[in-house]
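Input.
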Amino acid sequence: MKKLKFAVPLYDINITLVQVESPDDADDVKACCEEIELLPEDAEATLEFVKQDKCDGGDTWRNFDKGQMLVIFYRMTNGRIKRNRYGHEKRHVEDRILQWCGVNDIESAAYLAGFLSEQFDDFYFK
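Output.
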């Protein structure tokens, strides 16, 4: 399993990105779910996807009471799909943060998108 944690300082949100590489990553994924206090039914569903070796998908979870987000990418079958899913989940992160903070400004959204792009790219190439 590959993992990257980073903070989005302006919005006081900590994000963990997880790339599942095999069903053997289930225990590590479980620990990440517990860290953000993911609802038990959501954690269970996520762990089932990992154990079943779900491919080419992702999930974005949030617990803004704890100031945390967790993005899980299931095993990817090729680089093109991986790039697409990273962009897809990044957009969910952007939308959830802006919604949570009540931001309705395209320039703020663009700065957040740029910042997250750097983080997701670092993770992609890690």
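The beta strands are 2-8, 13-19, 58-63, 68-73.
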